[in-house]
Amino acid sequence: MSDTESMDAAWAWQPFQPSSERPWDRSAAAHLFRRAGFGVDLAGIDSAVKLAPSDVVIGLIAQNQEPSEFRSTADTLAKATLAGGDPKKLSAAWVYRLLNTPNQLIEKATIFWHGHFATGAEKVKDARMMWNQNQLLREHALGNFGELVHKISQDPAMLIYLDSAVNRKAHPNENFARELMELFCLGEGNYSETDVLQLARCFTGWEIKNKRFRKNRYQHDSEVKRVLGQNGNFDGEDGVRIVLEQPAAQRFVVRKLVRFFVSDEPSPTDAMIQPLADLFRENDLQVAPVIQRILTSNAFFSSIAIGRKIKSPVELIIGMLRSLNGTTNTPLVAEGLLNVGQGLFYPPNVKGWDGGRAWINSSTLLGRANLIADVLNDDATLFDGKSLSKYLRERDVRSLDQAINHFEHCLLAIPLDNATRSRLLETATSRSSDQDRQMRSLLHAITSLPICQLT
Amino acid sequence: MLISTNQNRRRFLRSSIGGAAAIGVGSVLPECFAEAATAGKTMDDRVLVVVQMSGGNDGLNTIVPYADDDYRSARPKLSIPKTDVLKVDDETGLHPSMTGMHNLLQDGLFTVVRSVGYERPNRSHFESMDIWHTCRRKDEPRSDGWLGRFLDRQPATSGGDVPALHLGREQQPMAIASTKIRVPTVKELAEFQLRGDDKQSLRRLLQNRKTDSTEQDNELLRFLQSSTTSAISASERVAEAASTYRSDVKYPQTDLGNKLRVVAQLIDAQLTTRVYYLQHDGFDTHAQQAATHGILLRQWSDAVNALVRDLEAHDHGKRVCVMTFSEFGRRVAENASEGTDHGAAGPMFLCGGCVEAGIVGKRPNLADLQDGDLKHEYDFRQVYATILEDWLGTAPTPILGNSYKSLPLFT
């Protein structure tokens, strides 16, 4: 079963039952934690292996809101950066959340929605608006998609980004209406150019005044419109509702979720998508049941998923740190992410990050290795508050060989081959006798390997 | 010692193709390898360097109609005296600080297209720049730029050398925004190198292409492996370029000069990058224009001259074209603070071994203005169309959204 074509769609989404051929072991649990979040340490992996996989997933899904204590700490940090108004500082505050959240699935899904409803601070320029949108995405990350779309259609950052901050009856702005159908809800081919024009009329009068959304009824076109086959004196809410009613909506969103959580390529077949699309609609466009079904499925634990995605920069760097209980210099990571193509709050355009092979070119590959080097060499980088070698020693990891095993369990979706293993050993041994330096060098080498760019 | 480019290329091919063939993955070799193997001076081998003059360059004081009385009367303080211009013909001269361009022109390596603009000119820096970058107006969706769309239409080379590079600290220009490819912005060459004191061993580790069965059935892993190999080769070539690159050409010690020297090094290192994008900022000369404008033009003219001479000396002159543009020209009449305000049409410039040297277009008619600005004779997309078709060898219409009459800009 090397591709989705040969996989039976019904079997694919049925619950994964561990077997001797596909056991629920460290490797499978680490895969789940990497995809449902960024990764956990070996102790976390080992305690998950003692539970049933479905129970672990249910536990992850149940954490659908941040605990108030963490939230208040993370919010305080983020709000402290708002005073300066520089969205770049906000990126570092998000890095803090990614590194420290007890609910990794929420942050993973928030990044998914950030790429989906991509809004760039380069254009919006207002840190507070970007922050408010980020909170909106986080709050609904595992909630109701329809509700999220309604809210995002009135989100100041989004409307500024899509040139829709002033939408007048005489000149309806088509940008938001178009992207709502093309990129947010339906996908190309599921609406006509007339639908774009008509839908744009529904949103007239929607504007941002004093950084807040408001409806200007004098600028609203109150004539009858015909949107996606329906006639009426629609306003923007009606427009969003009609778009969400389209059967293409469930397929479009589910396809993107499958690509995000299961595999980049090949693109899942329609047959594979349909059962999840049905589930999504039956649940009134609630996201959590779909993600739960994905994460507990045969497909998710099969060879079409494991090691079949290219790590995003966030997954690479946050994954390395979270797997080793690391903390670091968050502005350094935020800046580094921007340099290797995934600046938080700085998606490349309204389509968001394409992901997959698009993450990779000679500049980003070197940039990834350098970012890891910078992080490992930064004085602020600690593992459980200690040096890397001390952290490992406390886990009975004393030799380079044991360290390779430890990193392999936490970080790699595909086991190392013997040749690479011995080359890694050579590389690390040739280094100084300073054990901490050796361990960091080894970690740098492993995380820079092509195989570690896969998840 | 000067290392010949052919030697570089051969060495590079030996290291990459030899290694790849050894593991039997010839079919997944990045496009650039195959291309480099057969490359002559074909269309695929050609490079476009874009220099953006940000802020609105005063075209009238760049390509000066020194014999025009209307010019003198509109600019009692700012007009360039007849005796100072670098004469091109009986009515036109270059700004006196543009000796570099004047030399290029005399050697047949410099082309000016006069009065380039577009309908209903927008005098906002950002909006006008966006129009130049995307070829689209505000009311149209514009998620990518004209060069980004060009890149999108190239055969997929992801994993190979970057298809385009933005050198600088500024925000990445929209012109190279693409839907498929993330064009890197490189602030300095050091970013193209592995960092850290274990970089030597890391390079050896990453470059080792020995493989096993796991890799064979995971196409993504093979892709990553070959991408990594080519990244390491590219960075080695860049490092070698930086350390062994010798040039008799003296680049000016300016930001633009330094960046263009890097461009020359990268081109000489046989990177398959097609587009280099750089910005030269400061042209928003509303007050006390004369001194500032002279300095900016000198920096540009000297740096581009150095690049073109350098490329010629390294036998790349015929495969590189440098295009310079600005988002608009400036108002014909000077303002009260010895500066000029935002205008409309202005000149564009092409430099290189393949340009049809000279001045294209009529002398601007200063007696027939539109809201105080020059009317455009050519749409900027005509220049783009010419570059796309005659230089980069691709059909311009799908990229520009419309068909534009091309101009005789290349030999």
Automatic annotation (TrEMBL), chain A:
InterPro entries: DUF1800. It comes from the Bacteria. This is DUF1800 domain-containing protein.
From TrEMBL, chain B:
It comes from the Bacteria. PROSITE patterns: TAT. Coiled coil: none annotated. Pfam families: DUF1501. PANTHER family: BLL7424 PROTEIN, DUF1501 DOMAIN-CONTAINING PROTEIN. This is DUF1501 domain-containing protein. It comes from Rubripirellula reticaptiva.
